[in-house]
């Protein structure tokens, strides 16, 4: 069975972009791939500075994973920081990753452009991500389109290591990006992102969810006039509705006398219905911390068994003595 691996940073509350761009794939792939899905908590230190936020977000993501359908019987679910071997491999990779390659990372450049004072963690982010992936010999990495470049960098770093040490040691992983959901738009029409304040959060309390949906930006076409059927609301609605329903909404927009407020209500109802079961399941799981903790411990154990072996081999390849004298 091929191996699939992916992670999400606990840098905020998960949203429709994270679900459709990433988690939905993790869930549908569960029967056909050996899955490894983790919470990238080390990565989130590049943006989070409050320990309580990190703890809170991490607990939330695990509950999100489980209630959205990740099944611990089928996939290995764990916290990145429970497998410190990722960081050990990261250091080896730092020594083959060219600075010029890391300097070209869009996510890094975007943060610089926004006036962020970068630390080494942010700069080296793609090298840690490469370690996350290469340490498990992952075949595929399901992600949203924004991660494509990071995956290319992972392949570059893996190839460089193999070449430098004349080994065929790291497997070059393929990204898995679903076209339909490659970029889920946010309430302002830009990419939905935790860092842009434009998210719709599937597990927000109903009142807050409604506010998020109602805040979708639209133009000021009067109620009675026809409207562009390709607006933000319709794009989000398409994630939930079948083709007939999508066409119905488009026709109503074209016909006029159908306001953006009406469409938002339809979207809100579609979201509540789609995530209804998951919302219930999440409430139950939130009461059962012991069960969740056990899943994480078991996940970490399984992940560590693989990761520590790979790191040991990597250390020997680069000439660290490792076990030789023991
Ligand atoms: P964010 O931009 O909100 O911080 P992350 O960088 O943590 O999101 O992304 C976690 C996963 O969700 C990644 O696989 C990413 O590609 C995917 N993802 C995030 N936002 C979107 C979006 N708007 N559309 C599609 N996929 C997304
Ligand atoms: N960089 C990814 C993101 O922001 C999170 C991540 C960290 C990841 N390590 C990974 C994704 C390994 C896939 C595989 O979304």
UniProtKB/TrEMBL annotation:
Q: What keywords appear on the UniProt entry? A: Aminoacyl-tRNA synthetase, ATP-binding, Cytoplasm, Ligase, Nucleotide-binding, Protein biosynthesis
Q: Which residues form the signal peptide?
A: none
Q: What class of enzyme is it?
A: ligase
| Alphabetized InterPro entries for the sequence | aa-tRNA-synth_I_CS (IPR001412), aa-tRNA-synth_Ic (IPR002305), Rossmann-like_a/b/a_fold (IPR014729), Trp-tRNA-ligase (IPR002306), Trp-tRNA-ligase_bac-type (IPR024109), Trp-tRNA_synthetase (IPR050203)
Organism annotation:
Fusobacterium gonidiaformans 3-1-5R
Binding-site list for ATP? 9-11, 17-18, 144-146, 184, 191-195
- The listed location of motif 'KMSKS' region is 191-195
Q: Does the keyword Protein biosynthesis apply?
A: yes
Q: Which residues bind L-tryptophan?
A: 132
Which reaction(s) does the protein catalyse, per the Swiss-Prot or TrEMBL entry? Answer: tRNA(Trp) + L-tryptophan + ATP = L-tryptophyl-tRNA(Trp) + AMP + diphosphate + H(+)
Q: Where is this chain primarily localised?
A: cytoplasm
Q: Which GO terms describe its molecular function?
A: ATP binding; tryptophan-tRNA ligase activity
| Motif 'HIGH' region per UniProt: ranges | 10-18
* Location within or outside the cell: Cytoplasm
Q: Family, per the entry?
A: Belongs to the class-I aminoacyl-tRNA synthetase family.
**NCBIfam families reported for this sequence:** trpS
Catalytic activity, EC:
6.1.1.2
What is its quaternary makeup? Answer: Homodimer.
Indicate what this protein is called per its UniProt record.
Tryptophan--tRNA ligase
Question: Record's Gene Ontology CC terms?
Answer: cytosol
Q: What functional role does this protein have?
A: Catalyzes the attachment of tryptophan to tRNA(Trp).
Gene Ontology biological-process entries: tryptophanyl-tRNA aminoacylation
| Stretches of the chain forming a coiled coil according to its record | none
A Pfam family of the record is tRNA-synt_1b
